[in-house]
Amino acid sequence: MKRFACADAGVVCKAQVTGATEEEVLAKAVEHARTAHGVDLTQSTTLANFARGLIRDDAETQRP
Ligand SMILES: [Zn+2]
């Protein structure tokens, strides 16, 4: 399980997306950024790579 937290990108936003693979999480993050923030990550390779770099393994973050 992979996880992307919008807040990790420096955005004041509590949204998180999870998925089985990095690609799945990135796709959901792209969709979220577009609908919630009006930012199209696919327009910029830099932004897309930045978002990809923020994806973490869920096992590390889901400890109680
Ligand atoms: Zn967000």
3D architecture notes:
The protein has 64 residues and is α+β, with helices and mostly antiparallel strands. The chain has one domain (2-61). The protein has three helices and three strands; from the N terminus they run ββααβα. The chain has a three-stranded antiparallel beta sheet. It is globular and about 30 Å long. Bound molecules: zinc ion. Residues 6, 11, 13, 15, 32, 36-37 line the site of zinc ion.
Notable features of this structure?
64 residues; alpha+beta; binds zinc ion
Provide a quick synopsis of the model:
With 64 residues, the protein is an alpha+beta fold.
Write the layout of secondary structure elements.
Layout: E1 2-5, E2 16-19, H1 22-37, H2 45-53, E3 56-57, H3 58-61
Bound molecules: zinc ion.
Zinc ion binds at residues 6, 11, 13, 15, 32, 36-37.
Radius of gyration: 11 Å
The hetero compounds bound to this protein are:
zinc ion
Order of helices and strands: EEHHEH
Largest sheet: 3 strands, antiparallel
**Poorly predicted residue ranges:** none
Distance between the termini: 16 Å
Give the assembly state of these chains.
single chain
Mean pLDDT: 91
Please state roughly what percent of the residues sit in beta strands, choosing from under 5%, 5-15%, 15-25%, 25-35%, 35-45% or over 45%.
Answer: 15-25%
How many domains make up the 3D coordinates? 1
Biggest sheet strand line-up:
2-1-3
Principal-axes shape call:
globular
Helix content: 40-55%
**What's the tally of helices?**
3
Structural class assignment: alpha+beta
Number of strands: 3
